[in-house]
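sorry to bug you again but im stuck and you know this stuff better than me. theres a chain ive been looking at and ive put its sequence and its fold in token form underneath. id like you to explain what the token line says about the fold, in plain words if possible. anything you notice is useful, everything is just below.
___
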Amino acid sequence: MAPPELDEAPGEEAADRPRSRRRWVPTALAPVPGEGARRLGERWVPAVALALIAAQLVWHGVLLGRGYFFLDDLTLTGRAAWQGFGWEFLTQIYGAHLMPVPMAIVGIVTAVHPYGWGLAAASLLILQLGASLAVLRMLRVLFGGRAAILLPLSFYLITPMAFTASWWWAAGLQALSLQIAVAMALSSHVLYLRDGRFSHVLAAAGWTLLGLLSFQLKATVAIPLLLLLVTVLYFPERPRSRVLTRHARAWGVYAGLIAVYSVYVLTKLDELQQSAGLPTPAQGMAFVARFFGVTMPTSVIGGPGRWTDELSDPPVAVIALAWAVIVAVVVLTLLWRRGAWRAWTILFLTPAVLVVPVFLGRGQFFFSAQDTRYLADSALVATLALALATLPLLGEKRPYRRRVPRGRPVRVAGGVVVCAFLAFSVVSVEGYVAGQEDHRARTERYLESVRATLASAPETTDLYPHPLPDDLLWLSFGEENLSSHLLSPLAPPGLAALMRHPRPTTNPQVLDDQGRLVPAEVHGGYAVPASGECFPRAGGVVTIPLRHEGETATLALSYVRAEETAAYVRLGQEEIEVDFARGAGRIFLPVSAATPSIQIEILSPDADLCVTLAALGGVVPA
């Protein structure tokens, strides 16, 4: 297939114009080499595009006002406060991701205002602005400044495919940064293909690096695959193998960058917290059928229209409508647009590759195939494919097989389709937010109550580590689920330090489900003397047959007839000094070491101490 024919050589028209003082314009609106005067004559297109983007930001801002922190957001904030902003924090593996850019944003927001949703939402809006401008730039580089680019741009701005990830802070930081990187890398690479300037290759490599630093699992595949497909399908050589040899320097830069970064990721595999779990054949088939047969097609037309919790659950009628619309669009574009098959090849192949990490990590869970946040990167690909299947590339001649229908009936029909897509998308997005905002509001009430409680509590309060309420955080992140990690960012410095490193106490406290301080009790296993009132004592050492596996827990010791004395409580390699008060009492201490039994070494061998009960487990409100 021959490369698209150009109306004029790149930059030819610019060379004939008299020189004038250069003025700065945003990258998304900067003139594109080879863009003819006829296209630049549509001066209103950039203004309308920016107005559409502004409307999207206002809409998203209103919806983010109904959102709040959720699941991973809490864990990441806890890590940022616990570890502090630094190289180790930025380059740690989270789950299966190495993502310094999102981690940097989390670290900055946490340092300025922990659990400050206003700042977090603002960071999402800034990234969304960057992503929308990047998509606009991509469309202008490929198709010029023609008014028709407003349709695929509008698709990207409104589709639920891109929204659900951008309403969740942790997911949005990754997804939006990756979208910026993909769109800008493709724009720079296309400019290189047109004029051969190596500076465009370096720019594409820079944007690729941004993608790797944001979402390495997908950027490693998505960016080179998309650049290769666009090059082979739309800028071909004869023979096709020349695509690789002619642009060998560009491919070498991209491959070298990705290889170096991948090697660095491999050096950190020991930090991996989420391993691949291959689904069974039946699970895999169910995942693929649901994801590509239901979730993706219904989202493409503005659906799903119905949600079960945060999962796509479209009615059968919507599924049938989605496939009817997709088949109709594909058939019509194949009939009218020359080479439309190339656009649909990109759309069908790229998401299939992008979903591989999800398939390997979560393919055994059917509900993952219903989660539309895994379509966020495919929204950009769908935008690109829709534009390629309907619009001529900049300077392309004879893009259509037959005359494109025009006239009032066509405009009316097109307006109806656009309005239907707009309305269905708004209904779907509103349904998603409405189904989630009660949980987000519950989380906000709890965290703000905790913030107020800790602000007024004495800094000497012994607030012991405990899990958050189940209705706020139901996924297991191990010890990062505990208040010492998640809630200490809300406390004054002295109290925060004591929450992270609690001390033995006779008055432990926890936060109840409403975020109020209440006395604590140990819930777990216990041991009592096999005979007599006290655990046996030999040579000043009391041995308690209570096993501990090593996770963070609290040990409660009840005693009578004690003289005022100090003792070491030993659990394996862990040793804690404890002061026993005179008489009867109960003392609590945090433990974490694994041990088959507990030993208490009394520092004054002649001191009387009768331990009557030992309880070991988590703390709960008394």
User: Anything to note?
Assistant: Residues 408-456 form the longest helix (49 residues).
